[in-house]
Amino acid sequence: MSFAAAADRxxxxxxxxVLTGAGVSAASGIPTFRGAGGLWRQFRAEDxxxxxxxxxxxxxxxxxxxWRRAAVARAExxxxxxxxxxxxxxxxxxxxxxxxxxxxxxRAGTExxxxxxxSIWTLRCWQECGAPPWADERVPLEPLPPRCPAxxxxxxxGVVWFGEALAASDLVAADRACSxxxxxxxxxxxxxxxxxxxxxxxxxxxxxxAEINPERTAMSDLVDLSLxxxxxxxxxxxxLRLTEG
Length: 245
Prior knowledge:
By secondary structure, the protein is an alpha/beta fold. The protein is built from nine helices and eleven strands. The strands form three sheets. It has a six-stranded parallel beta sheet, sandwiched between helices.
């Protein structure tokens, strides 16, 4: 099946869902967890993005998140973000499900976004005192580690750490989005569940499923079409075909 087939499917689609991962933000200069830039000092993300790491050394964990927040603040949405933002207004029923916490989709103007892993710009009370999560976009954060404005205890990043459950409301929204005409997986190897199962769910419900990734992934044999290339390049090419009619 050709690259043009994906554009044809999109052109006739009413309901479009896109699942994005770290690869979509790579062109904006955001380091990925598992790529060559996935190390911070001598630590892996998997060593820091856990409740046990925070309990052991909250300042170390916050130094990492403060570094990440600074990197995101310097970044700008790339062509992939802007194409998807346009699609969110073009299609009758569009939904973006993202594993990213950087907020670049929202900065590009994307509508109908479900953030599976939360936001790096949101904080929560570590002691769970009952205060609702709050936004804090200061770079750098002071004091470090930050404090809960309600109880004065430690605050934690408002993201889903390894070993934590995703919000039930986000899972419901993502599942509903799997009922679509076209489902695109962009910039993610889709190896972590439940996100890894969404493409299979969409296909079982009759969706045309396409993958956009520079390398072969575990789902390449499971999709209808696998498009090789960086997300910003492939999505831009698809957009060009759509606008040309």
